[in-house]
Amino acid sequence: MEQQQKKKSILSGIQPTGVFTLGNYIGAVKNWAPMQDEFDCAYMIADLHAITVRQDPKVFKQQILSCYALLLSCGIDPEKSIVFIQSQNKNHAQLSWVLSCYTQFGELSRMTQFKDKSAKHADNVNAGLFTYPSLMAADILLYQADLVPVGADQTQHLELTRNIANRFNGIYGNVFKIPEGYVPKAGAKIMSLADPTKKMSKSDENPNACILILDEKDQIIKKFKRAVTDSEMEVCYREGKDGINNLMTIYGAVTGKSMDEITAEFAGKGYGDFKVAVGEAVADHLRPVREEYARLMADKAYLESCYRKGAELSERISRRTLEKVMKKVGFIL
Ligand code: TRP
Fold first, then answer.
1. Does any ligand 1 atom lie closer than 6 A to the CB of residue 129?
2. 199 an active-site residue?
3. Distances in whole angstroms, Cα of residue 135 to Cα of each of 84, 139, 160, 232, 278
4. What's the total number of domains in the chain?
5. Which of 30, 117, 223, 241 is catalytic?
6. Mean pLDDT by 10 residues, the chain (333 residues)
7. The domain containing residue 320 runs over which residues?
């Protein structure tokens, strides 16, 4: 008899710190939608993580909702996946405390993100910024996730999660599944349009460096027209052509064309034509996302029904792990 294979499970999270950039989108969120058919997915708005830096309450609240709507606009389907807001499931904070007691000061001190962020926010090096990785470990381990899609900046945190899980399992027996990183096939890193040696970032001072996924078509095209390239005239993917390589990566990601196809398409044409083509392709690709976002934000009742359901489902699933942990440690349930 044919055995039914259980799907592998995935958990990932994104911080609600504003509209996604084209980099967040191509590098991460765009790949989350197709994964829903292959895996059991849970996607989380990491709002607890976001308060490790100061947030304005009104803006923050708006960003949490808007980020939730953006996930749905990018094709994440609350009927197929668990889509939830971290702070609405108290199990995260609770497991995080327990795990922080199984995480060493030295380990947390070695996290490069902690070092970077504490240098950047020297006036607010709070304990949450320091224990951030224990909370992230809780997020992942609560769901017994097999796979965690994360960008390069989070691989150190994932490695620490595995160490915490192994340490806990070593003391108490098999409590946590040890998660693996997952690099989606199309997970490209998108660089700044103004300085293609730097990652695209919404905190860039130059507004032309970054495309936001809710930008209007003419804005998008304008920004691509200004993109920094090189002094050659050939659209081809080659070392040293960071600007063109980045534009080709973007064009390939939104059209599905290979680098060879793109090179052939623009043979004999100038960079000007190429940039406009990239801008148009990106704007056309993002139009349905923008439209769906506007529709969802006008239907707050529907959004609320989705995140309430997400909170309930995530609570129910994560409670099993939390209770197991509490029992193992010796708490009275
Ligand atoms: N720390 C992640 C980031 O800033 C967001 C995040 C929080 C996350 N919890 C997670 C990602 C769990 C993957 C799994 O990008």
1. no
2. yes
3. 16, 6, 11, 48, 39
4. 2
5. 117
6. 76 92 92 94 98 96 97 97 98 98 98 94 95 98 96 92 98 98 78 95 91 96 96 93 96 95 95 97 97 98 98 98 98 96
7. 9-187+300-329
